[in-house]
């Protein structure tokens, strides 16, 4: 399939990613690790891999635990190296995504 096949189906500023999910089991805990490969759109960046917990909307993966590479395997390897000696609780930082006081969604 041509490299730009999907681009004709995207609006300006959109990107299409392939997401793959992995489960890391460590003792009695499990962490989800996801990889994102940019299939279409710009900029065409590297593949990234990161711990990802979508069950809490107020958590975001800390930048230090995100691996990148030219291939999924390379990105996943870098991510696993970065998280190897850390607790699963260390992977995330709390974010405040609430609207400033007095603002509302239109």
Please describe what this structure looks like.
The protein has one helix spanning 72-83; strands spanning 16-26, 29-40, 47-51, 59-61, 67-69, 92-94. The strands form two sheets. It has a four-stranded antiparallel sheet. Strands 4-6 form a two-stranded antiparallel sheet. By secondary structure, the chain is mainly beta. It has one helix and six strands, in the order βββββαβ. The protein is flat. The termini are far apart. The protein has one domain (5-87).
Q: How would you state the average pLDDT, rounded?
A: 85
Low-confidence stretches: none
Our measurement of the CA-to-CA distance between the termini, rounded to an integer number of angstroms, reads 41 Å
- The number of domains is 1
* Major beta sheet summary: 4 strands, antiparallel
| CA-atom Rg in angstroms | 17 Å
Number of helices: 1
Return the string of H and E elements.
EEEEEHE
Shape: flat
The secondary structure category is: mainly beta
Helix content: 10-25%
| Spatial arrangement of strands, main beta sheet | 1-2-3-5
Number of strands: 6
Task: Please render the helix and strand layout as text.
Layout: E1 16-26, E2 29-40, E3 47-51, E4 59-61, E5 67-69, H1 72-83, E6 92-94
Antiparallel strand pairs: 1-2, 2-3, 3-5, 4-6
In short:
This protein has one helix spanning 72-83, and strands spanning 16-26, 29-40, 47-51, 59-61, 67-69, 92-94.
Describe this protein with a few key phrases.
single chain, 11% helix, flat, 1 helix, 106 residues, mainly beta, two-stranded antiparallel sheet
